[in-house]
Amino acid sequence: MDVDQLTAFQRVVREGSFTRAALALGIGQPAVSARIQALEAAVGGPLFTRGRRVALTALGEVFLPFARRATEILDEGIASTRLAHGGQRGRVTLAALGSLAGGLVGPAMAAMIQDHPEVEWLVRSGSHETVLGLLWDGIVELGVIAWPSPEAIAAELIRVAVWREPVRLVAAPDHPLARRRRVTRDDIARLARPFLRLRWWRTHHPEVTRIADRAARSIDVPMETARHLALRGMAVGFFPRTYIADELAAGSLVAITVRDLAPLWRDSALVRKPRVAVAPVIMATLGALQAQAEQLGLMRRTGRRG
Fold first, then answer.
1. Residue 152: CB atoms within 10 Å
2. 0.85 exceeded by the pTM?
3. Rounded distance, CA 127 to CA 82, Å?
4. What architecture is the 3-85 domain classified under in CATH?
5. CA–CA separation, 231 and 50 (whole Å)
6. Confidence bin at 193 (pLDDT 50/70/90)
7. Range 89-306 has CATH code 3.40.190.290
């Protein structure tokens, strides 16, 4: 049983004649008869009564809705495949560091949804270890992880890009540290009260740990909680710039330069699971993420291969 047979069957039903069906299909009448005979052999009985006007048999009446459903599904499949080939349809599965899920992934996904509304999405966020686990388990195909990543699974991933972003000490505008012209590490340890001991890399950054160890009071909380405390003027901490970009732009948080501390940076990598062919929608998503990274001013570093 093939598509040509199903098409011939439905055309004969519509035209009520093998001859008119052949004209509509642009083939000879013997070819239509051959297709119907082959179809009848497959279903196990006659589909039409032959005569002056061709009519469906009881078997043909039963078979007709299934033939229509089959061709409709095939038509939908062809249309969906063409859309997928053009990047208009498909499925994107992505996990990202929580600190980049908003500023990086959110705008990139918004651009994709606008240009590719038929695409299905599965997006997750979490720690570096969480993202690697989702990649390892095959739940997501794309990931944004901390870099470098010494874990064994990272060596199996294709690194599309590596980005570098500054990590800034921030506080509310009315915090005592924000009002000082000169700030040192000793000032942070003395005046933060509390100092936010944040982990935005695979481990706590050594400089952050040293300041936390000297601070009169330090707390270890998730970045979502830390941002709320900083906005309330109740704490000070080092945040990746992307995570607090909106607050810096609005002036609800201010960046503080620490005179006796070298600039801090956080590297992250956009990775994907290896496979023979990359769907167009995945390529479009990678492009959207890289475009948003450029808008954020993340410095592009050389990746292994894309």
1. 9
2. no
3. 37
4. Orthogonal Bundle (1.10)
5. 83
6. confident
7. yes
